[in-house]
Write a structure and sequence with these properties.
- The protein is built from nine helices and five strands.
- It has 172 residues and is α/β, with parallel strands linked by helices.
- The longest helix has 16 residues.
- Bound molecules: shikimate-3-phosphate (S3P).
Length: 172
């Protein structure tokens, strides 16, 4: 299996860690949101605002299918990707999945220093965001925890994770 998909909540560092893993394995790295933005010439934020979340989820599914056709690839998915349209089933079929796990409090503190706008959160009042993250993380972990490998997202270790990926692959 020469495809790896990183999953996890917004701000868990999927793109940063994913590109490190890709470099180590000498694989191509693709950020699913960026691939969508390049193909459709709209930012994710604009797709939510000008169209709808439903349209975004359809585009996201199509793009996931497209990138999963590639080989020797590490894909950073969006925070919602595994939770819609049976995407987690597809990810499990086609790739080794890696969940970057973090607590709601850790994610919230990352959010406070992030510059990239997230449409899922920008519509929530600032003083309600921690509660929102807690609740949606709880719902989303039903999907995230189906991942083949769970990594501590707060302190992820590239060498250890690559070893786990290789060991998992050998036993598959
Ligand atoms: C989303 C997460 C975002 C992006 C979109 C929706 C979500 O990706 O796909 O804004 O539903 O959690 P990141 O996890 O990279 O922020």
């Amino acid at each position: 299996m020469n495809r790896i998909v990183l999953i996890g909540y917004m701000y868990s560092g999927k793109s940063t860690f994913g590109s490190k893993i890709a470099k180590r394995l000498n694989y191509e790295f693709v950020d699913l949101d960026k691939a969508i933005e390049q193909k459709y010439h709209y930012t994710v934020e604009d797709i939510f605002a000008k169209f709808s979340e439903d349209i975004f989820r359809q585009i996201e599914k199509d793009m996931l299918k497209e990138v999963l056709k590639k080989e020797h690839i590490v894909i950073a998915s969006g925070g919602g990707t595994p939770c819609f349209n049976n995407n987690m089933r597809l990810i499990k079929q086609e790739a080794i999945s890696l969940y970057l796990q973090m607590s709601a409090e850790q994610l919230f503190s990352r959010m406070s220093v992030s510059k990239k706008p997230r449409p899922m959160l920008s519509c929530i009042a600032k003083d309600k965001r921690l509660e929102f993250i807690k609740q949606s993380l709880k719902q989303r972990e039903k999907y995230y925890l189906k991942a083949d490998i769970v990594v501590d997202g707060f302190n992820p270790n590239v060498d250890k994770t690559v070893e786990e990926i290789l060991a998992f692959d050998n036993h598959k």
